[in-house]
Write a structure and sequence with these properties.
Layout (H helix, E strand, L loop, with lengths): L1 E4 L2 E5 L3 H8 L6 E3 L7 E6 L5 E6 L11 E6 L4 E6 L18
Parallel strand pairs: 2-3, 3-5
Antiparallel strand pairs: 1-2, 4-5, 6-7
Length: 101
């Protein structure tokens, strides 16, 4: 889905490979995705010679990876991954997630 917010063109989709593909078009300022629960902020080169910001906030619930979310400023296009403190006494399973390739 595409939307405009604070003067920024934003594309949001579930799958990272689709977000990356849309990011290369140069039509979006920011592309956001989820699916693999891997927190990441990246700049994608576009076919128009610029860059699009790519954001995957990870998983705030800590499912399959440490819990994270993203905070950002659309005016400055400044974003950061925030780790959620984990209560060591909570009983839930966090299996290992492989590194990005």
């Amino acid at each position: 889905a595409g939307l405009e917010l604070a003067g920024r063109r934003i594309f949001i989709v579930h799958y990272p490979h689709y977000a990356r593909a849309m990011g290369t078009t140069g039509e979006w300022d920011l592309v956001c995705c989820g699916h693999d629960h891997r927190a990441e902020i990246d700049r994608i080169a576009t076919v128009k010679g610029g860059h699009t910001l790519f954001i995957n906030p990870g998983t705030v619930a800590g499912v399959g990876a440490p819990p994270t979310y993203v905070m950002g400023d659309l005016d400055e296009m400044d974003f950061e991954i925030v780790s959620v403190p984990v209560d060591p006494h909570m009983a839930y399973n966090m299996p290992h997630v492989t590194a990005h390739t």
